[in-house]
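Section 5.1 Outputs to date
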Amino acid sequence: MTNNNFLDNTSLFALLYKWRKKIITISFAAAIIAAVVSLFIINKYKSDVILFPTMNLSTGKALLNENNDFLEIGEEDELEHMMQILQSNDIKQRVVTKFDLINHYDIDTSKEKYYADLMKKYDEHVEFGITKYSSIRIAVLDKDPQMAADIANEIASLIDTVMNNLQKGMAEQGYQSLIKERDFIVGKIKIMEDSIAKIRAFGINDYESQSEVLNEQWAVAKIANNHSAALAIEKKLAIISKYGGLYVSVREQLNYIRGNLNHMNKKINEHKLTAEDQLEHKFVLNYAIPAIKKSYPIRWLIVLTTACATALMMIVLIAIKEIVKQLKQS
């Protein structure tokens, strides 16, 4: 007799009715055991922080650039950046140290890989996620409700510390590099100003207007047959012709470099502000508070799941037993 024939000819309800007492008894016993065992599971409480990231701006750029608004809520990129920050080893290590989580989680430091056990416990108790409203949720589970709230709030506060430290480090390097570049440019400007001063010593102060005026005066002197005046003007024109092109070239380079110096001074101020001052990188919507009710374990769910799983396993075993019996009889 095949398995299909057995299923066709045997009523499942009849089978369940036949074995109902054993199924109910064993399932009830499993539920009782699960209830007793669940009493030994330590109650844990969950607290969470809800926050929004701001635009990812440095302090200097946010304060000195009128086109940027550091009060604007960040978008998808900022959410991803903040998630990376929250999962960084820097934040984990700061939290572990401040709250002495090695002892709090009862980590055996005599083990060679105790730190891996610590991080595993940390990840089991701390989780991050992006909500459907594009905010970030920091959730902490702990046997102490106050500890859970404190850890969640501390992680939220560390976001600014870690992000500002990252920006400060880069800003300080950029600041020193820009200072060196500015000193180099200031030196070039000094050389060009000295060159212009030497050219002006020849009487050249404004090449375009001077050459225009002198040419007009030369023409007037020629018309008036004032040869001495014309000769004197020609000498001046010769000097302007000799040094005028150099004067214009140096002047234009000087104006261009001065423009670069102004831009560089602006960047230096941005980097200096970023290196010295801090900005908030988040808007906290809800700070964590100690939970009143436990979040884990859900004892009724453990009992119900155990009873249902036991009943299902009994049904499967009974069905297999009946199939084997039918096969032997055939």
